[in-house]
Write a structure and sequence with these properties.
Elements lengths: L5 E6 L6 H8 L22 E5 L2 E9 L6 H5 L1 H5 L6 E6 L5 H12 L3 E6 L2 H12 L5 H18 L7 E3 L10 H11 L2 H10 L5 H27 L5 H20 L4 H11 L3 H6 L12 H9 L4 H11 L6 H36 L2
Parallel strand pairs: 1-3, 1-4, 4-5, 5-6
Antiparallel strand pairs: 2-3
Helix pairs in contact: 7-8, 9-10, 9-15, 10-15, 14-15
Length: 359
């Protein structure tokens, strides 16, 4: 499941905020290593790939605008290979243009999903507030913006277009979380997992959805643990279990954004110091390198774990039923440990999010 590719196409005209959006969705700040170049003039007619920093199977493709030239538009779909993407984000900083509409219709012919995103909403609100001063109404301004976009798309032939208002600098606000939820809901299940695991934390609900998805995978880790225990080699089961725990816990830490690089980027983006974010963490597994030594150290602090592991090893010497008992104990222990660790890390993620965005 971790090797399933997910390709996301992002397109829009120069200045629409494509690059900043791609960076935000990958949990990067503009200027970070591997970030898409912002403010760059589009000089190529091919798509630029940007891998997710934690999962090379998730790729964002920055597509050039389709353009208004008929000759270029005619061969655009094949030239940039739109077919490689699972779905598309069409971004505009104003009303969606004729070129945006033309591209959407090309994607529709391919029977693929596309989503209209109206970017730079925070800038629009700032400018409107500066202009209107005391008569400024935030909700009325947002409603006017989205109605303007929808009316334009309806005039272009889209019956019920859905438009998401986003700020790539404040992804926890406006429609960014709604966009994430919509993408997850409309993707096939195997692709949905890939998106959910790499999507940035924009709300407490995202944390809960990730936790639920991780919990659904525990049965597979437990089954693998049982298989390892069924092999009659002393010490092998423990080695297998530790390897399973390292893999699972590493996935949890990265999925919840509790690895050190992600937390440091969060500190830069929110203005809350890394030390303050780190200060609300309880689990020793967050913001740490997940090693065999660290896993064993954590296991040693959990009551009952040592007894269960000893019982598993001892049961091997029971004639006939020893191996099945050992497999069952190993599966139970691994499931119990992963549920405990998952709950602990999910709570840490909630505390970090609340600390970062409650200022």
């Amino acid at each position: 499941m971790q090797n399933i590719p997910l390709n996301i196409g992002v397109t829009g005209e120069n200045g629409s905020g494509k690059s900043t959006f791609i960076n935000a969705f990958r949990g990067l700040n503009d200027g970070d290593d591997g970030a898409a170049c912002t403010g760059c003039t589009e000089t190529t007619e091919t798509a630029d790939p940007y891998l997710h920093p934690r999962d090379a199977n998730v790729t964002f493709w920055d597509f050039p605008g389709i353009g208004s030239d008929e000759n270029r538009a005619a061969g655009y779909t094949k030239k940039v290979n739109l077919d490689k993407c699972d779905f598309f984000i069409i971004i505009s900083a104003n009303r969606f243009t004729e070129n945006d509409v033309r591209l959407a219709k090309e994607i529709k012919k391919m029977k693929k999903k596309f989503y209209f995103v109206r970017s730079k909403i925070d800038s629009d609100l700032y400018n409107e507030k500066k202009k209107l001063k005391t008569s400024f109404n935030r909700e009325e301004t947002l409603t006017a913006i989205i109605n303007n976009c929808i009316e334009g798309l309806q005039d272009a032939g889209f019956e019920s277009p859905q438009v998401f208002l986003v700020s790539s600098f404040n992804i926890q606000e406006y429609d960014f979380p709604l966009l994430q939820e919509t993408l997850e809901r409309e993707l096939p299940e195997h692709k949905r997992n890939a998106l959910l695991m790499t999507t940035p934390i924009t709300s407490l609900e995202i944390i809960e959805r990730k936790k639920k998805d991780f919990q659904a995978q525990i049965k597979y880790y437990a089954a693998a643990s049982a298989v390892g225990a069924a092999v009659p080699v002393p010490g092998l089961s423990t080695a297998v279990d530790v390897g399973i725990l390292i893999a699972a816990v590493t996935q949890y830490v990265h999925g919840f954004g509790l690895d050190t690089p992600t937390m440091k980027r969060l500190a830069v983006r929110t203005g809350v110091s890394y030390d303050d974010l780190h200060g609300v963490i309880v689990s020793p597994l967050a913001a740490a390198e997940i090693t065999k030594e660290l896993i064993l150290k954590v296991l040693a602090t959990l009551s009952g774990t040592a007894f269960l592991m000893a019982a598993e090893e001892g049961s091997r010497f029971i004639p006939f039923i020893g191996i099945p008992v050992a497999a069952a104990l190993s599966s139970f222990t691994t499931s119990r440990l992963l549920n405990y660790i998952l709950n602990m890390l999910a709570e840490d993620a909630q505390r970090v999010f609340t600390k970062a965005f409650s200022q």
